[in-house]
Amino acid sequence: MARKTNFVCNNCGKTFAKWAGRCENCGTWNSLVEQIIEDEASAKSAIAKGQVSGRELKVDGIKNIEPSDAKARLKTEFKDLNTVLGGGILQGSVSLLSGQPGIGKSTLLMQICAEISKTAPVLYISGEESAGQVKLRAKRLGAESDQLFFASSTSGNDIAKTIESGKFKLVIVDSIQTLSLAEISSAPGTVSQVNNCGNLIIRAAKATDTAVVIVGHVTKDGTLAGPKILEHLVDVVLNFEGDRYGGFKTVRAVKNRFGGTNEVAIFEMNEQGLKEVQNPSAALLAERQNTDGSIILATMEGARPLLVEIQALVTRSNFGYPKRTASGFDLNRLNLLIAVIERRTKLKLDDKDIFINVVGGIKLQDSAADLAICMAIASAAAGKKLSEDYVVFGEVGLGGEIRSAFRPDQRIAEAKKLGFKHALAPQTVKDKFVLPAKDLRTTLIKYVNE
Asked: Over the range 100-125, which residues count as b (16 or more CB within 10 Å of their CB) and which as e?
């Protein structure tokens, strides 16, 4: 009897009865892979007859249960990364780390292994690199501890069995897309393989109270590759972002069952590996030249205030359709702000090419960056520069109004610490958030045309 099959999209997990070149759900090309459907007739028949296997659950009073957070955490050498994780890597937790190729995921994990292996046994499992390659990285980063072990495997069965041995406090799996189970015939990286390998590793980690960090690949648009269910299964999801060729790199938690998701760790890469940036605002502004189109934005990276330089370049367009380009800022938001500037002010930008750059490779996700973007465009278009001791923040509405910003007191305090004398802030900032005039003068504005 022929086995029943269907086709599953590797990108979104949607199931189809027949193969197609493009997924009808997410639009991804060449992402449908075949998988075998198990015969469920006998299972449905047993359920219909009431022949369900199982046993009564053992219950316990909620007061008698020890909270997971009471367990000792494994501390990394990075203070900010420990904060992002909620205080360190919790024993028995499963974390998923994703990032672009070459950004430094393996380097970060090797440095974490080097620190934790000083006090506890650690296993690094690689399905992508040989032992010699990992050895060279470990030697460069000084991670040659007696309690740091290595294994090369792509078998999800073997990795789960090794975790079940309970010999290691931390296990690194690099990466989930290279693993496969012997019981499933599909290729590594498919939906069924990623789902089942992830489930098997998570059960082994919970059973032995072993901390596991899984590396996940990303798609070309930066989202985590594979089925979305993998993100639901794990305890922590970390995104490693930034420019792989230079600039700052950030690690932020988009999911954390043991802590908040409003923290961020900022790193820079050197010959000795990744290093935490203690004062990123000063580093970002060190090479600034105060010219037209340059505005200093007081933004927030998680719960940390940060000063970054916004640069704008406005030139006459040589074509009928003006070009808009943004690096580190959402292009759709830029087009919206340009429309607000044209409608609410006297500037005419319909025949201008506009280029926006956020210095340092920072990717802004703060709505309070709107005012700085608008002022940078206006400054570049008019050829006039703002005084170098000004910082700016505020969200711009479609009516041209300046709306409130998150944590204005911390933004102003960061500007004062770096020697700025003036701040342009939304009118809605209350007096209790504003520092005394002798420290930093705050000008409150209500509309963008001011």
From this structure: beebbbbbbbbbbbbbbbeeebbbbb
For tokens 């002010």, the residue is 345
If DSSP codes are grouped into helix, strand and coil, which group holds residue 97? strand
The tens digit of pLDDT for each residue in 341-398 reads 999 988 899 889 999 999 887 888 889 999 999 999 999 999 999 888 899 999 999 9
| C-alpha atoms less than 13 angstroms from C-alpha of 178 in its C-beta half-sphere | 14
Q: H or E stretch including 265?
A: strand 264-270
Q: Backbone dihedral region of 361: left (phi > 0), alpha (psi from -120 to 50 degrees) or beta?
A: left
Ordered structural domains, the chain, with CATH: 5-48 (no CATH), 69-278 (3.40.50.300), 282-445 (3.30.230.10)
User: In 209-361, which residue ranges form alpha helices assigned H by DSSP?
Assistant: 229-233, 280-285, 331-344
CA-wise closest residue to 73 among 207, 165, 211: 211
Lookup result for tokens 């086995």: 3
- pLDDT tens digits along 384-437: 998 888 999 999 999 999 998 888 888 988 898 888 989 998 987 765 455 554
Tokens linked to 213 = 């960090």
